[in-house]
Design goal:
Number of strands: 11
Distance between the termini: 24 Å
Structural class: alpha/beta
Strand content: 25-35%
Largest sheet: 7 strands, mixed
Number of helices: 6
Order of helices and strands: EEHEEHEHEHEHEHEEE
Length: about 240
């Protein structure tokens, strides 16, 4: 596990005004739902995001499932101005290994009094229940700032507010392989099949956000080849 030093939940400088907002960590994939969750949390005056926790596959040095290079992940975290917390897992990790790495990565934040982790989940009740059980075992609680938002409206809002993202992982069993490497834009929403969720909530696709509100600067990305792996298609960004 590697933890980039993050903002403490307790301000060590007594001369500064006390920040009474509750510190939370946000589960971060680098995709649009994570970015929109961060945006929603920043608009909530009762909380402050003190870290982004991301699962990284050791050896590949990429965001697990999304396949985005760790170098882009760190550049993205710097651009949004929130410290990164890495939960490192081995290649083909079991769920037990994932949960152990996640718990270990959260331990320093828990020691500083962080008791809640936010997720960008939208409507999958089984995933929400899993998050709740996972955090309950750690004595923590989840937050779901986007829960039950209409996904079509949310996708349109993302585009209208000029966030910029690219599809980095596509399930070719659910949408056409040509969508890999496509920008997340109005043309994409128009071309997606009617049975595909416009936010990819059913696993149709995953994204990487490289610019938008809350970014200090764009993350430079270059589209590489589309690579098949484990039944998915990955657009290799560099």
């Amino acid at each position: 596990m590697e933890v980039v030093p993050e903002e403490s939940a307790v301000d060590p400088d007594p001369a500064r005004p006390v920040d009474t907002r509750e510190p939370v960590v946000l589960a971060w994939s680098g995709g649009k739902d994570s970015v929109l969750a961060l945006d929603a949390l920043r608009a909530d005056t009762s909380v402050r995001v003190v870290g982004l926790i991301t699962t990284v596959t050791a050896g590949y040095e990429r965001i697990s499932m999304h396949g985005v290079r760790r170098t882009l992940l760190t550049a993205q975290a710097a651009a949004v101005g929130v410290p990164l917390i890495e939960a490192r897992i081995p290649i083909r990790a079991s769920n037990d290994a994932y949960e152990a790495a996640f718990a270990e990565a959260l331990a320093p934040a828990r020691a500083r009094g962080v008791m809640r982790v936010a997720f960008g989940d939208l409507f999958l009740a089984d995933i929400r229940a899993y998050r709740e059980r996972q955090l309950a075992a750690l004595g923590m609680q989840p937050m779901f700032p986007l829960w039950l938002r209409d996904t079509r409206a949310l996708a349109r809002e993302f585009i209208a507010r000029e966030f910029e993202a690219v599809l980095v992982c596509v399930d070719p069993a659910k949408i056409d392989p040509s969508f890999a490497g496509h920008l997340f834009d109005a043309a994409l929403l128009h071309d997606l099949p009617s049975d595909a969720d416009p936010c990819g909530e059913n696993g149709e696709f995953h994204t990487f956000v490289f610019n938008g509100p809350g970014f200090a600067e764009p993350v430079p990305v270059h589209l590489g080849p589309v690579v098949p792996r484990d039944g998915f298609l990955f657009c290799d960004l560099s």
